[in-house]
Amino acid sequence: MQAATGETTVFRAVDATEAAIIKNTGKFSLQQGGVEAKYFAKSFEDAHWYGQRLYPNGYSIIKGTVKAPVNAAEHWFRHVDIGAYVFPKETLPYIIPH
Predict the structure, then answer these.
(1) What CA–CA distance (Å, rounded) separates 36 from 91?
(2) What's the rounded Cα separation, in Å, for the pair 61 and 51?
(3) Which of 1, 41, 61, 79 is buried most deeply by CB count within 10 Å?
(4) How does pLDDT run across 6-54, given as a tens digit for each residue?
(5) Which parts of 1-98 fold into alpha helices (H)?
(6) 10: buried, middle or exposed (CB in 10 Å: 19+, 13-18, 0-12)?
């Protein structure tokens, strides 16, 4: 969802550990030993689809806002599963969790 201000709303399914990290730090970050990017969905429903497949023992969905100068459209990959935003480490400070 692209807002008039150029901001984009994204959604991420997370396990309890990642949810706690986001709550404690107020930001999205990479975990040591993990992948070098974070994957986000375009909608709550799409994030739910990912959550069901990735976290059979439960998950939360966290909404984020992608701020300038990051252009979310440049990070959209329609051929990743059902489509996903793939944001590398350097873009994560511009995605604000809510």
Answers:
(1) 11
(2) 8
(3) 41
(4) 799 999 999 999 999 999 999 999 987 777 899 999 999 999 999 999 9
(5) 16-25, 44-54
(6) buried
The pair of three-digit structure tokens given for residue 79, joined into one six-digit string: 């051929």
DSSP annotation of 2? B
Task: Give the separation between CA 75 and CA 91, rounded to whole angstroms.
Answer: 10
* CA–CA dist 28, 44 (Å, integer): 17
**Type of residue numbered 16:** A
pTM above 0.85, yes or no: yes
Residue type, 70: V
Phi, psi for 88 (deg, rounded to 5): -75, 165
In the structure encoding, which two tokens stand for residue 76, read together?
A: 């959209």
First to last CA, the chain: 15
- Strands of the chain (E only): list them: 8-14, 37-40, 60-66, 76-77, 84-88, 95-97
